[in-house]
Write a structure and sequence with these properties.
Blueprint: E1 3-4, E2 18-22, H1 26-37, E3 41-45, H2 51-58, E4 62-64, H3 66-69, E5 75-78, H4 82-92, E6 101-104, H5 108-111, E7 122-128, H6 132-140, E8 147-153, H7 159-169, H8 172-175, E9 177-179, H9 182-197, H10 199-214, H11 219-228, H12 230-248, H13 251-264, H14 267-282, H15 284-294, H16 298-307, H17 311-320, H18 339-350, H19 355-358, H20 360-368
Parallel strand pairs: 2-3, 2-5, 3-4, 5-6, 6-7, 8-9
Antiparallel strand pairs: 1-9, 7-8
């Protein structure tokens, strides 16, 4: 493992450089503000008059339309969502000067060749291992969120140094920067989301809840045991791994963990994980997701609507309303959709695709630059 810290940074790599941050969402805002506070010349590329344009200006940043923002920029960070990056890139690629560095926070579109930068450009990746609000908050507190660094194309011979200097500018070298590849970052990120962090964890929670309710236990009690208390365990794991979890849970819980856990997450589950990883590495998942976006996301919307219209969501909403300490903790946390929202999503997904719907990805590319 190659781990870089502040002492490894070449401060000359981006000295006097103009940096364009395209997009002002979670990561875009954090990167732009951190870089500005680190003394860099930053311009934010967003849709004129949009929410991002107004917010960036309020927070003291230069703003410009994306195509104008990249003009003369030495480094261009593309921080709009993955599904719109391909079309978005087509709108700004002609403005990229030879020798500029194009930076991504996730390798999806480069690794799966949706974006193919010209040979005269550096192509790098800096992926903070945390959401944008945490990247900003840690920087303000004098700390930093660890980052991954990768170089896909080194046209100038300085791609690595510029990427590391960028990571330093957003605070990443305070937490440590690990060298990786676009392939490794993309494939592990997708696998982790699908098999463990999002898909695996949430399905485990829901199936546990349903098992208790179907056996006659109160839904509210089942919610506390299978979802609410999960945070207690995750916090212990996050702070000190398995050892800290075992240190703070009861002997009974430890014995149940050691003897029953492997029966739930067993070799059959691991074999399914291997299949999921194979689909990620082969590009099968990427092709399916790209096709889903191109066709208007109807199946995605249907699946999402069904997922948030579960009994556990309705029970949880009522219980969380009685726990005021849960609210307002994260500045950028999305609100859980209400049941009516789920119905609207389902109805939307059932409609036939209209010409306007078919253009949704292109419209999204403009919106997400805001």
């Amino acid at each position: 493992m190659k781990l870089y810290s502040q002492k490894d940074v070449d401060r000359r790599a981006l000295k006097g450089a103009r940096i364009a941050i395209l997009g002002y969402g979670s990561q875009g805002r954090a990167h732009a503000l951190n870089l500005k506070d680190s003394g860099f010349d930053v311009v934010v590329g967003v849709r004129r008059g949009g929410a991002g344009w107004k917010q960036a200006r309020r927070e003291g940043l230069q703003v410009a339309e994306p195509a104008q923002a990249v003009q003369g920029a030495d480094l261009v960070a593309i921080l709009v969502p993955d599904p719109v990056q391909k079309e978005f890139y087509q709108g700004i690629r002609k403005g990229l000067k030879p020798g500029a560095a194009v930076l991504f926070a996730h390798g999806f579109n480069v690794h799966f060749r949706q974006i193919k930068p010209a040979k005269h450009l550096d192509v790098v990746l800096i992926a903070p291992k945390g959401p944008g609000d945490l990247v900003r908050r840690q920087y303000e507190e004098g700390r930093g969120v660890p980052c991954l660094l990768a170089v896909a194309q080194d046209a100038t011979g300085t791609a690595h140094a510029r990427a590391l200097a960028y990571a330093h500018g957003i605070g990443g070298t305070r937490g440590g920067v690990i060298e990786t590849t676009f392939a490794e970052e993309t494939e592990t990120d997708l696998f982790g989301e699908q098999a463990v962090l999002c898909g695996g964890a949430t399905e485990l929670v829901v199936k546990g809840f349903e098992t208790l309710v179907e056996a006659g236990y109160q839904p509210e009690v089942a919610y506390y045991e299978c979802l609410h208390e999960l945070k207690l365990i995750v916090d212990l794991l996050h702070e000190g791994g398995l050892a800290k979890m075992h240190q703070f849970i009861s002997e009974t819980a430890k014995y149940g963990d050691l003897t029953r856990g492997p029966r739930i997450i067993n070799e059959r589950v691991k074999n399914e994980m291997r299949k999921v990883l194979k689909e990620v590495r082969s590009g099968r998942f990427a092709r399916q997701w790209i096709r889903e976006n191109a066709q208007g996301r109807q199946n995605y919307q249907k699946l999402l609507a069904a997922d948030i219209d579960r009994q556990i969501e309705r029970v949880g909403a009522g219980l969380r309303a009685r726990m005021p300490w849960l609210h307002g903790k994260r500045r950028n946390a999305p609100q859980a959709p209400k049941r009516s929202a789920a119905r609207r999503l389902s109805a939307k997904a059932s409609r036939k695709k209209s010409p306007k719907r078919a253009r949704s990805v292109g419209a999204a590319a403009v919106r997400h630059a805001a």
